[in-house]
Write a structure and sequence with these properties.
Blueprint lengths: L1 H32 L2 H21 L3 H15 L7 H19 L4 H8 L4 H5 L4 H20 L4 H23 L5 H8 L4 H14 L10 H38 L4 H15 L3 H19 L3 H28 L1 H8 L6 H17 L3 H7 L3 H26 L1 H27 L6 H18 L7 H22 L4 H20 L1
Length: 500
């Protein structure tokens, strides 16, 4: 447990550091020192390379995470042939990518040429970016398998963003042109990849053994079935994260410029995911144990509490962002004029998602786990089709509406499944109280006169909302957990002062 706790703490620290560096890059450096088209290009290149890179691994990474312990326990290090075969699979995927992609050149020109010509001009940079991502993803899986999680998290969360910052500063001080900047950007994964490879080689846990071992002979069929199933789910997740960017760049009237606006909006809304990430790990294991014990009462309690707590915290973060969105627009400039509307719409989508609680974990831990997979697949396919339809007609706003409609139908479907299968639902009057309180507090502060300094205005509005909303949550006892946490914190502070 000591290793898990230490690595979890260090990884979390690096994730938050990376988030802070990313905020500087996305909210300040990119918008102020690159054009909206250039900014949008950086996002599109990363998303396309992630999508193709995930596909080109052909399921070798989930197989590594699942089956490496079998190889490690049954074979001496030098006889472990799993690294060799996963490398072969990734090499085959890379070759397939290199062979097939040139055949798609005319399609790329047709779909992106009119609205995002810059992407067509720099399309060849997809090759180094994708190939390096394929092997970075594989080496990361091996690092996780040997319980070396801190270094890959540091490389992906901190080093990647720091390298991006350095490249932008080269542009700011006119040491390189944009052409050189974007070319270097295409090789941004190479340094993290080489560091991970060096670490694995030095550990002795990454031998290249070309002989087929007894473990491979016995497990290969299970590995293939497992890889295809889990890989398809992971791939759908990546598609869901990247489809908006690709569709907007190819179909929206302003192409890459709209992609830049959408990138900032989604980055702001991503802040609302922080409580979900913190809650998922611990509650998933509790829900799984409750299913094992057939304790529906406990699952029902967790379902209600998580839905309420995520809604309360998510609303708080969303309203602070919304109250300061005009300050953000003043800071970024008129090129990002659609930002307030986009943030409002996709923020509502995130509220819907958070407000339905841990429905995915409940389904995935139950005997009806296939429902989770099927609804995920339908969600991705539906959101892509809806994105294409609405972006063609309404441009960037269409993508935002596609997001909120997709999330509403997706979560409603899961809500109905859980209700019909288990007679569980997550709502009470406390949820309605939280919504009403957030609306009243937001409207009250929205009417305040604007302070000329955007940073002071943002601080005042954010602080006032937190005081009003937080006091209301505690006064009306909306969340038992939040009230208990507040009382416990106050008591700890009092105890500290008493000892002094």
């Amino acid at each position: 447990m000591g290793i898990i706790r230490k690595q979890s703490i260090l990884s979390s620290i690096f994730i938050y550091i990376g988030f802070a560096i990313g905020a500087v890059n996305i909210l300040y450096l990119f918008p102020h020192y690159l054009t909206t088209e250039q900014f949008g290009l950086t996002r599109l290149l990363i998303d396309v390379s992630m999508l193709i890179g995930m596909l080109a691994t052909l399921g070798s990474c989930p197989a590594t995470l699942k089956f490496y312990p079998f190889y490690a326990s049954m074979l001496p290090k030098e006889k472990n042939d799993l690294p060799f075969w996963t490398l072969v699979v990734c090499l085959l995927g890379s070759v397939a990518f290199l062979v097939i992609t040139p055949w798609c050149q005319s399609l790329i020109i047709r779909k992106f040429g009119a609205r995002s010509p810059l992407f067509v001009d720099y399309f060849s940079l997809i090759y180094p970016l994708t190939i390096s991502y394929i092997f970075l993803y594989l080496f990361e899986a091996y690092a996780w398998s040997i319980q070396k999680t801190v270094l890959p998290n540091f490389l992906k969360e901190v080093v990647f963003r720091l390298l991006t910052t350095v490249l932008i500063f080269l542009v700011i001080y006119k040491l390189v042109t944009f052409n050189t900047f974007i070319t270097l950007y295409a090789y941004i994964w190479v340094l993290p990849l080489l560091i991970l490879l060096w670490m694995l080689t030095r550990s002795g846990q990454f031998p290249i053994n070309m002989t087929v071992s007894s473990v491979t002979k016995r497990l290969w069929k299970r590995m293939v079935v497992f890889s295809l199933f889990v890989f398809s789910g992971q791939f759908l997740n990546v598609v869901a994260r990247t489809a908006d960017t690709i569709v907007i760049s190819s179909q929206s009237a302003r192409g890459l410029s709209d992609t830049a606006v959408f990138t900032i909006a989604t980055y702001l809304i991503t802040i609302m995911d922080v409580p979900l990430r913190g809650m998922t790990g611990i509650t998933t294991s509790i829900i799984a144990k409750a299913w094992r014990d057939r304790d529906l009462a406990k699952i029902s309690s967790l379902y209600k509490k998580t839905a309420l707590n995520l809604l309360v915290v998510g609303l708080g973060i969303f309203c602070v962002i919304l109250l300061n969105i005009n300050n953000a627009l003043t800071f970024l400039g008129p090129e990002y004029g659609l930002l307030p509307r986009i943030v409002l719409i996709i923020g509502l989508a995130k509220i819907i998602d958070l407000g339905t609680g841990l429905n995915s974990q409940i389904l995935l831990s139950s005997k009806f786990w296939r429902v989770d997979f099927v609804t995920n697949m339908c969600f991705v396919l539906f959101s892509i089709v809806l994105n294409i339809m609405l972006v063609k007609r309404y441009n960037l706003i269409g993508s935002a509406f596609a997001t909120v409609i997709s999330y509403f139908i997706y979560n409603l479907t899961r809500f109905i499944f859980i209700w019909r299968l288990f007679k569980l639902q997550p709502y009470s009057w406390a949820n309605a109280k939280a919504l009403a309180l957030a609306a009243v507090a937001t409207l009250a502060i929205w009417k305040l006169p604007q302070i000329s300094n955007v940073f002071i205005d943002a601080a005042v509005r954010g602080l006032l909302f937190i005081l009003i909303y937080g006091a209301g949550v505690l006064y009306f006892h909306i969340s038992e957990d939040i009230t208990s946490l507040y009382q416990h914190t106050i008591q700890r502070v009092r105890d500290i002062f008493k000892t002094k």
